[in-house]
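Hey, quick one: can you model this chain's 3D structure?
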Amino acid sequence: MMSRNLRHLCRRYSTFRTSETSPGQHNQKQIGLFYSLDKDLVKQLYGHGGFPRSFMKQTKTFTETTIMVRQPALDLMDCIKATDFNKPVNRYVLYGEKGVGKSMTLAHLLHFAHEEGYLIVHVPWVSEWLRRVTRLKEMSNSQTKEGFVDLPLDAAAWLLHFKSQNHTLLKADTLKTSKQYVWSKREVTEAGSPLLQLVDHGINRVKYSCDVIEALLQELKHLSTTKQCKTFVAIDGFNGFFYPLTRLNTPTKRKVKPEEVTLTNSFLELTKSDWNNGVIVVTADQLAVPDEHQESFLPKYLLYKKGFEHLDPFVPIEVTRYNEKEFLSCASYYRDRLWLRGPPETEMELKFTSACNPYRFMEQCAPL
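Sure thing. Here's the predicted structure for all 368 residues.
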């Protein structure tokens, strides 16, 4: 009897794709359906980060990149469309338990922002800067801020990401700096220089990359407020900025605090509500910090007192596990991609063992 009901549900939700590829046109009719992204667009928007690593591996296996249309993304898009951009920027916090799709929701919103003509300021994962220590990780004392440290290679890589995501808008040559920036006796970015020139300076002269980011973000706040552009800020794992310690050490083996990193200071300045004509969307994620004994996934807990007060007031938007339609749609997609095999009863078993958690469901399908 159970398998008969399951087959009935599978037939009912056999359609798991939508032909509507524009996020701005997505609505309630497309909830639970997957839409495809063009390869060139994926390279531009997510080539330097934006998708979870497990999802990137999956796209190579599936030979395509698709995103499921889900309610949290639609809710946030509706909020953005109804925004009065003459008022201070609205701040939104995506939250939810591990593996429910916060990063994927943010990826969907990045595509929406791109299509709507926003200049995108995107940090794919805060912990890459503060907690992922690699052989190539370089840290130096800031030359302009006493007591701060720079992460020049990380900053230069982020500027490449920013340039890639916004190359069309930056090439228009309508966005210009509002003041002069002196980097050394011979290196100066004059007032009225194209914003792209400022970005390229940080990429080509890595030692100045952190200072360039600080200048760039200040310019974007000014350009947005003066209606020269509209800016979409997206930061994944934002609560990582407020965890007491990083994995960075000074030469004297002293642990570096997040607030002592110049990149932290620059992006916290950007996420203040002292500018307009923009949108700020961040995620609060348990995976953004190394503490394994976390009591809650709620923003008030993960952001700590300092982070909560920094963002207050904000609009919280919860990302939940799959509902029944989303689960069956995802199961149908996995079967189509030969990621899931076996008899129809398999879906019912996986529904219970994964508890409809998107990441857990994907992991459990891999060996089947």
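One thing worth noting: The first strand starts at residue 34 and ends at 36.
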